[in-house]
Structures are given as C-alpha cells and as structure tokens.
Amino acid sequence: MHVELMDFEQRVSSKMRVESGFPGFPQPEQYNLTKTEIEDYLLDKQAILDSAGSQRTQYTIMGIMIVLPVVVFSAFPQKDMPGGNWAIFVALAIGLCLAGLVKLLVKARINHRLKRMADERIDRYIEDVLNYKS
C-alpha cells in the first residue's frame, strides 16, 4: 500500500483548486493578491520547510553525530579518557548533545528564514483557505 503525504504547498494548492468555486471561499482579490503571488509564496515557503532534508537524511545526520565521538574516543587509550571505563557512555552523551545541537540549529535556521520571508497578507489568506469549511 502506497500512501502519499501532502506537504504544505500541496495541501493549500489542492484546496484552492478544488474549492475555489464554492460560495464564501476566500478569493485572492479580496486580499489584494494574485494567484501568481500566492503560488510563488507557497513554493518559497515549501522550499524552506524542505531544506532540513528528508526524514531519512535527518536520521542519518543524527546517527553520524551520535557515533562520531565514539569513533574519536576509540582512537585513544581508555585509561586516558574522561570517565575511564565509562568512556563509551561519555562519548554517547557527547554524541547525543551534538545531535540535539544540530537539530536545534536546523530548526532555528528554518524558523529564521520563515520569519524573514513572511507576508502577513498572504499568510492571512492561506489561513482563511485552510480554515474554510465547505
């Protein structure tokens, strides 16, 4: 069974295409917008949302960040490592911290880019489209 997930751009575009003729559906003209402006905005916003990579890519990066300190620690004698016999757990803790830091930095970068490109008129229109009940 193949399930296709709809991303933000597809969800909004599909709703606009299917329900635009219904009475009471928000029209771009009411918000002083054109369809091209909305489509460009949705495309740019989706590109930013997708910039973190696929879930598989994110897990791969997290795995590398977790394992990297273990590999580095294995290059040195265990007695010289912080934690002595517990050095592997120290390395894993450092790796988990690195993975969390990378995740936070990626999320912060995405949020910063979304705030920079935000357009209140288009966001209001998109919100009204998504909240429209036929």
Task: Explain what the structure shows.
By secondary structure, this protein is mainly alpha-helical. The protein has one domain (27-131). The chain is 67% helix and 0% strand. It contains five helices and no strands. Helix 2 (35-50) runs antiparallel to helix 4 (87-117). The chain starts with 7 loop residues before the first helix and ends with a helix. The chain crosses the membrane at residues 59-77, 83-106.
Question: Key terms for this structure?
Answer:
134 residues, mainly alpha, 67% helix, rod-shaped, transmembrane
Structural class: mainly alpha
> Helix count, per DSSP?
5
- The tally of structural domains comes to 1
Characterize the overall form.
Answer: rod-shaped
Please state roughly what percent of the residues sit in beta strands, choosing from under 5%, 5-15%, 15-25%, 25-35%, 35-45% or over 45%.
under 5%
The gyration radius over C-alpha positions equals: 23 Å
Q: Count the strands?
A: 0
- Topology as H/E string? HHHHH
In short:
The chain crosses the membrane at residues 59-77, 83-106. The protein is mainly alpha-helical.
Secondary structure layout plus pairing:
Layout: H1 8-19, H2 35-50, H3 55-73, H4 87-117, H5 120-131
